[in-house]
Amino acid sequence: MSYRLGVDVGGTFTDVLLVEETSGATWRAKTPSTPSDQSVGVLNGIGKVCAEAGIALGQVAQVLHGTTVATNAILEGKGARVGLVTTSGFRQVLQIARSYVPGGLAGWIIWPKPEPLAALENTVEIEERLASDGTVLRALDDNDVRAKLRTLRGRQIQALAVSLINSFANPAHERRVAELAAQELPGVPVSLSSDVLPELREYERTVTTVANGYVQPQVKKYVDTLAGKLGEGGVAGQLAILRSDGGLSTAEAATAAPVTMLLSGPAGGVTGAVWVARQCGYRDLITFDMGGTSTDVALVQDLSPRIGRETKVGDLTVRASSVDVRTVGAGGGSIAHVPELTRALRVGPQSAGADPGPAAYGKGGTEPTVTDANVVLGYLPPALAGGEITLDVEAARAAVGKVAEAMGLPSTEAAAAGIVDIVNENMLGGLRLVSVQQGFDPRDFALVAFGGAGPLHANALGKLTGAWPVIVPPSPGVLCALGDATTGLRDVAARTVLRRFADLTGSELATILRELGDEAGHRLREQGIDPADQTVAFEVDVRYHGQGFEIPVDLDPAWLDDPDTALRTLAQRFDAEHDRLFSFLLSVDHELVNARATVTGPRPSVAPVQLGRTTGDASGAIVDTHPIHVTGERLDATVYDRSKLRAGDVVTGPAIVTEMDSTTLVLPGHAATVHPSGSLLINPVEA
Question: Where does the Acetophenone carboxylase-like C-terminal domain lie (predicted)?
Answer without folding.
Answer: 506-673
